[in-house]
Structures are given as structure tokens and as C-alpha cells.
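Please review this one:
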Amino acid sequence: MSKPGTHETNSMNSSNDLTGKIALITGGSRGIGKAIAFELGRRGATIVINYLKNHTAAMETVEELEAAGISAIRIKAHVGDEAAVESLVSKINEKFGRLDILVNNAASGVMRPAAELSRKHWDWTMDINARGPWMLSITASRLMPEGSRIINLSSPGSNRVLPAYFAVGVSKAAIEAVTRYLAVELGPKGIAVNTVSAGFVMTDAIDAFPDELGVKDIASRPTPAGRVILPEDVAKVVAMMCSADSEMIRGQVIMVDGGETLLHQ
């Protein structure tokens, strides 16, 4: 299994080859987003890393991608802000003239029970996790030729109740609904829209869960597949969904959890 920062030179099956494709990954400087950037880049795509706050992480990720022989740039933008979304897409248009792959990976949220949330917490979570992917998908679709792909990222909290996950879980349920509607609306334009749902993956995002909830323990224990889920596992499925082989998969939620959600916890 390849790791971020390594570049495999083996020839890629033509159906999996993304050479010449322009791919935008929101929240692409860390965690699962970074793994996706490397996987798509390894398959030949030019990578656009979107980030919001961590300039250093974004710069380092682009440098690592370039060191691996992958063409990459970074663009700062708040995907929950309409003007920022328009500016982001405009910059991609000026630089490349088109966009072939959009991965809506950026996510945020306040980890509290419903009774402890404020309207500000709700709005922040929904703006980035649900409204942002909707706005960015529609805006980016203007640059997307036939055969393009939009992949949204979700989690099992969209349909299961997780501790202190209220706002994030609702936002993930929303993005899965957004996926279904956009799959139908953008289908005639030749744009396939799907969701990849990742189980508990040990990344910085796990730190948002309070220790007493035991989420880190869940993420670090073997799944029914015999091992933990890695960011690269999710990235490979995203890449598969960007390939020609996935042409007739539309509006679906593809779970990457090693079978973990099949078990009663």
C-alpha cells in the first residue's frame, strides 16, 4: 500500500488512469483529504488543494506532492462562503480552464449533544459540511466537461447515532441527500455524483471527540476485515469512483469501514 509522499511509477490500468485530469480536493492538506490528493495524483491528476486556516500544512502538502512528481497548487477559500466559492472556481478557471474532479472533503463541526448546541454552532457546521458542497458542486459544474466526477465525503453518523455528533451527523445526512439530488440534476451534463462514507479513521479529526467517548479506541481496533481503516483505504475508493469503471454508479453512498458498521456496538 502506498503512503503519502511516495510515488509509484507502475503503469496504471487505462480505466484507472487520471492523466490530464484536474482535481480539486477541499480540505486536502491533512488526513483523508491529503491521502486522496496523493492517490489521485499518483494516477496522473493535477491536484488543487483547497484549505481554510492551516497555511503551513497546505504548503507542506503541495511540496510533498511535487516531490513525488505530482503537479499541485493550493488555493485558500472558505467553502461555506458563497463569494469565496465563486472566487475559488474562478481561479481554477483562470489557471486550467476546466475541472474534471471535485472531492468535497472539507468538514467541520461542534461536538456537543443537541441540547448544548447554539445556533452559531449549527450554522457553522451546516455551512461547511452541507451548504458548501452544494454551492461548490453547482458552481464548479460550469467548468466540468462530460465524464466529470463529484465525490462527497460522509460518515456512518449520517444514519447512526454517535455520541456528541448531533450537528455533524445531521450535516452528513444532508450531504448524502445532496448527492442524490445532484446525481439526477447533473446527470444530463455527464457529471456523476456519489458519496464515499468513511468509518472511524485515525486522523486529526478523531481528536475532536472527547476522550471519554472512546472513539479513539474504536478507530484503533481491528475491523472485521482484520485491521484498522487507513486514510489510504478511503482514498483508493474515491479514486475508483473517479475512474471510467464507475460510469454507471450514480447517487450512491459507498461505505469504507472494513465491515465495522455491521457489528452491534
